Amino acid sequence: MTTEVFYPSEVVDIDSLRPWPTNYLDHPPVQVAALGNSLAMFGQAKNIVVWNGYIVAGHGLVQSAKQQGWTRVEVKQLPADFNETQMEAFLIADNRTAELSTKNESKLGDM
After folding, report:
1. Alpha helix stretches (DSSP H) within the chain
2. Is residue 43 within 8 Å of 105, Cβ to Cβ?
3. Who contacts 77 (Cβ-Cβ below 8 Å, separation ≥6)?
4. Top-confidence residue, 74 or 97
5. CA triplet 38, 62, 69: central angle to 5 degrees?
6. Residues 5-40: pLDDT tens digits?
7. If 0-12 CB within 10 Å is exposed, 13-18 middle and 19+ buried, where does residue 55 land?
């Protein structure tokens, strides 16, 4: 059994965030536009994950928020004593676990 671990959320100046230097995902214009539409309709419901000012999850969301003229975003702060290897492992795990999901076309059609 794993221990429940939660990280603090805070609202920060969007210009204080830097992309992770080796982030390997590109965010094409169609995705950034879709994220912008979501921000316009729902606000920011998903947090961006950061470590020492670097984005480790949510690069596309930050890019879209900037294009929408947002000056602040909500982030989850990972502990400063984590290291770069842990952050890269987190970034990869966050991206890869999302890729493992599958669509239930029947349920989607019902919606």
Report:
1. 29-42, 59-67, 84-99, 105-110
2. no
3. 7, 8, 9, 10, 50, 51
4. 74
5. 75
6. 999 999 999 999 999 999 988 999 999 999 999 999
7. buried
